[in-house]
Amino acid sequence: MNRPMGGRAPRSDGGVQWLKALLLIFVLVILGVVILAKSGGSTKTAGKSHPTTTIARSTTTVAAPVTTTTVLPAAQVKVQVLNGLRTGSLAGKWTNKLKTQYGYVTEPPDDATVRTTTSVIYILTPGYQAEAQQLANTVGLSPSAVDLTVPPPATAPIPATELHTANLVLVVGEELAQSAGTG
Question: How far apart (Å, rounded) are the C-alpha atoms in residues 91 and 93?
């Protein structure tokens, strides 16, 4: 029997040994990563600490802001009524109706500067959008009847003398002409 020097027979499982060694190294690396992760990532070597950078991920949930709109009572809202049709006493009738039936503070009625067949509400005082919507609802107009441009556009049919007297201006058009005297 021929034996190689050293008296040992050759092994045919050398590949298996390398595979076991690689597996052992892999397990040790994974173990090291897990230990480092649990210890917060800092390492101490020979009594000196080495700073490490930790990147933290945080998830922030932002709730939609809650907007509460407080609508002033009618008794605190000053309304100027203008007759957009410029015939009859529509502004006077609506001024009386807003004051007596709904409790608004009203300015003396007037005519619009130009004939306007569509009713519209203008906001003279910034921050009175909710009150304008409430006035539209009160008189039976759709929310789109409120012109949200503050101050009103230069084309608004509001006499210049009345641009600073009220919070809101109601221009009475055809939609409100029939219901001016009813209630």
Answer: 6
What is the distance between the alpha carbons of residues 110 and 38, in angstroms, rounded to a whole number? 79
Q: Please tell me the distance from the alpha carbon of residue 74 to that of residue 113, in angstroms, as a whole number.
A: 26
More confident residue, 3 or 13: 13
The token duo for 164 is 């600073």
Given a contact cutoff of 8 angstroms between Cβ atoms, the answer to whether 119 and 176 are in contact is: yes
In degrees, rounded to 5, the angle at the alpha carbon of residue 144 between the alpha carbons of residues 140 and 150 is 110
For the chain, domain boundaries: 74-177
- Tell which CATH classification among 3.90.176, 1.20.120, 3.40.50, 3.30.70 matches the domain 74-177: 3.30.70
Bridge partners, 150 (sequence order): none
> How far is residue 12's CA from residue 10's CA, in Å, rounded to a whole number?
7
Query: Identity (one letter) of the amino acid at 87?
Result: T
90: exposed, middle or buried (Cβ count in 10 Å: 0-12, 13-18, 19+): buried
CB atoms within 10 A of CB 92: 15
Q: Tell me the pLDDT tens digit for each residue of 5-36.
A: 555 555 556 667 877 877 888 888 888 888 88
pTM above 0.90, yes or no: no
Instruction: Give me Rg for the CA atoms of the chain.
Output: 41
